Amino acid sequence: MKPSPLPLPLPVLLLLMEVSYVLLQENNKPNFVLMMVDDLGIGDLGCYGNKTLRTPNIDQLALEGVKLTHHIAAASLCTPSRAAFLTGRYPIRSGLTGTLRPGVFLFNAASGGLPSKEVTFAKMARQQGYETALIGKWHLGLSCESRDDHCHHPSSHGFNYFFGIPLTNLRDCQPGHGTVFQLQKYLPCWTLGIVLASAVALHLVGVLPLRRGMLGGLLLLVVTATGLTAGFIKMIPYFNCLLFRDGGIVEQPFSPENLTQRMTGEAVAFMERNPAGPFLLFVSFLQVHTAMFASAAFRGSSRHGIYGDAVHEVDWSIGQIMQALDRLGLRENTLVYLTSDQGAHREEGVHGGWNGIYKAGKSTNWEGGIRVPGILRWPGKIPSGREIDEPTSNMDLFPTVVQLSGASVPQDREIDGRDLLDLLQRRVQRPHHEFLFHYCNSYLNAVRWKPHNSSSVWKAFYFTPNFYPEDQTTCLHTHVCFCTAEYVTYHDPPLLYDLSRDPSESAPLTPDTEPAFHAIVAVMKEAAEAHQSSLQPVESQLSAAHLMWKPWLQPCCSTLTQLCQCQASTQHGENHPNSP
Hints:
Elements (H helix, E strand, L loop, with lengths): L9 H19 L2 E7 L18 H9 L1 E3 L2 E2 L5 H10 L33 H7 L3 E7 L23 E5 L14 H4 L4 H17 L7 H29 L2 E3 L2 E4 L7 H15 L5 E6 L20 H23 L6 E7 L26 H4 L3 E4 L8 E3 L3 E2 L3 H8 L16 H4 L10 E6 L2 E7 L8 E8 L1 E2 L2 E5 L12 E11 L18 H17 L10 H4 L33
Parallel strand pairs: 1-8, 1-9, 2-11, 3-12, 4-5, 4-8
Antiparallel strand pairs: 2-10, 5-6, 6-7, 9-10, 13-14, 14-15, 15-18, 16-17
Helix pairs in contact: 6-7, 8-9
């Protein structure tokens, strides 16, 4: 007869129980697949009412999960919106706003970016044992003091793996699509040309006598500036259109041909490398931002030209990623999220998307610029087939992901996002966000208020962009709407809308049409003042000094004299052992 085993000492037993609990918790941590399409309009998807584009994979995702119909981007331009998404904070808190026209980074060799002191959901998930990856667009800076310090690189913000572009898909990245710099009037030679023309005109009328040598000097200055500017613009594809794998350049300039398919392969390969999890995958599509592109298999597939073709390809890519989750048996333990960084870019004309019933588009805080798709799926944890019309924000993903990963939301800073899980699982009765604040660059542009026990959603504008009179979607003389005084109209009292009754923002309310007008405006003003008092001084990352091109920060896979040009097959990183 075998002797009975001796009982384990109580401290050892407790230790084993704790270890078992920790292992169980590790195994129960969900994976995250977060997908953001660039400049996708809420009206471009079948599940949001589109009848002429085919988005079966996205529509199926909505059927299997929750569709948010009042989902708001924290900004209407790429850089600040993405900063808010990653940090759960209004971009003004992290310095990702400014007072200049662009409002986004335009050069890889700029020194601005997401500050290292900011905490992203990727960084917090990595601390909890997650493998993390960013596939696609970053647009939050690259380096600070030298071209290789990569202080703003995705790897400095929590991503173990990066395959994508550090900037954005500019028009300059595709031959024949023009240049974003000419469109936005950033060429200094234009100013010099105006100076010369004015001087000559004044000389001819006798107001400003000039010697022939002085006129010749002015002419030489303009010709030189024009030549240098034209040469610089010609170099933009080599400076800005870079494809990275981790810290190394894969292509310079990158070729968009099949790029979405390559990035889809990278996303699937990352999940295949980490089937046991937990992992966080952020797929940040280059499409459907201009310059438009689509792989050969999708060109001509839609009735809406290259834009529609690009939407079709994005839908295909999402389908491939969902199929990979199923094949790997990860469907039940993966929270999937799909959104856009802002509304469709209506100012692009034929290359812009559709924002449904909502007014205007990208670069404005009208609903068309900031109301975006929001779809979440987590089988068994989130009810399927639901619609939620409660105001939510892309900032809400930060606390949601952080807490589900096993971490705690930071207490040393203001977090403006709200955990979505209670709302998704119907455990809350009060408004998810009572107030949301909408900035145009560093200027508070509008306030949204959902009062307790009310169906109304009030929105007050303190200024609005100047539109062409005949087309209330296009800003004057530009392809984006600017925020500075010469491009906007100020309102005192503010324009007031009830979005529950007027989601298209077609008829502002007045004290005659809304008896509580002054009381509503006063509450929103008080909330705005309280919010702004919570802002801490922070260095603007979009100042002129941070935005300008700096040659010593220019990433280059070869010498500058060789035009920083390289092909994927010859560059470090393309032969990565895990390449698809």
